[in-house]
Amino acid sequence: MRFSLLTRQSMVSLLALSAVAVGCSSAEPARGTVDPDAGADAATGDPPHALGVITLGERHSTGSSEVTPIASAAFFPDAATLPARCATDVAGCSVSFLPECGTCREGETCTFDDACSMVCAKTCESGCGSDEECYAPPSGVSVCRKRESFDAGPLAFTGTRAPLTLFPPYAAPSTLKGAPFAPGAELHVKATGASGLGFEAFEDDFTAVARFETKPSLANIPAGVVFGNGPIPISWTPGTDKVEITVAGSRGTVTCQADDAAGSFQIPREALKAVSGGTTDRYFQMSATRVKKEVRKDKATKAGISSRLVQPIGWVELTTSSTESAELSCAARNKICSDACVDILTSPANCGGCGRACPAGDKCTTGRCNGPTSCGTCTKAASTTGACVSQDAACKASPECATIQTCVAACKDQTCASACVTRATTTTAQNLYRTVAQCICNSGCPNECATACGR
User: Fold this and answer.
1) Exposure of 60 in the CB half-sphere (CA atoms within 13 A)
2) Of 174, 263, 415, 447, which has the most beta carbons under 10 Å away?
3) Residue 9: enclosing H or E segment and its boundaries?
4) Distance between CA atoms of residues 46 and 338, nearest Å
């Protein structure tokens, strides 16, 4: 199970960008700190307010025409009570890890507390009704309590590619396909207002973000650059919004903020090392997102009777996003050759190692060149100084066996070679030749002559 503790800013990031959290390590850098760039409103000087986050966006993979739509909304009675995100700064980027508690007792799970210390917390186990939620207090058993909805009623959008309405709890409809808006489109949202606790009715106009694409695409960044020693450069056509770059590895997630107008960014290797599993673990899930966020600070809320504090003033963040994503990997058995991830067990140009090319017409099998040229070269070596010297000498001592060898050497296919053996007039000569062939296939050149030996 994966956990993250989010502030107002990081909650917006989660909803808008669908950031991926992955495993972490006990290695440096340390993890038990609150991200200073993700502090609560009190830390930024914002006045108390409720918060609404409305997000429309799209996510596309490099080289794929398929687009995943994003449509979500969430409303919070007090922005200051949203928890902090446990992260640390590495080379100017934010790095988040999973908590590691060792072994927790039955009914507990490992998580971060409000101070970003790793603790074993009770797991909620009660079976609750559809209008209830399970609550696990720090001490005692879990209980069911009435779920208090806090929303803004149905949200109707216009200016989108197709009519779109989100209903509490604001799950995107299954009929939503592709990007919900055209790049730069003028959008409008109308909230009918909460029937209970939540925001009063409101309407707002906002502008859609431009589609975001990197050049070269994320998937086409050379493996030698991705898994090398330097930073990973990313470029795009400059824009006027914000860009967030996320790289998830086996130990954690790196999030870097970039200047859209700059049109480029270099992901620091120090941050990448913090979330990767080392030189043998070469896998990153990478995404780059352009985000346009417009904030409205003039909304009213309805408090009513509630166990929670509801701020009378509400802010609404209207966010649109465009994300390019790619999975980048290079298997542990592979090598980086000329900036490419190469399987040296099968690559004819890098057979058994970078730059070890097989002769033309030969193929690479288990890291050895296999084919007519490689087999011929290996057979000569095995017969003169290698494993089959004695067998070859016995064949050459027999004129008829030597004739078979000469005949086979001139052949271009297996049919010709078989005919050379069957034309021999004595079984002794045939057996002497077959003894040499068996030695070559089994001991002298099992890989180089695999095809000739029928494997």
Assistant:
1) 19
2) 447
3) helix 8-17
4) 52
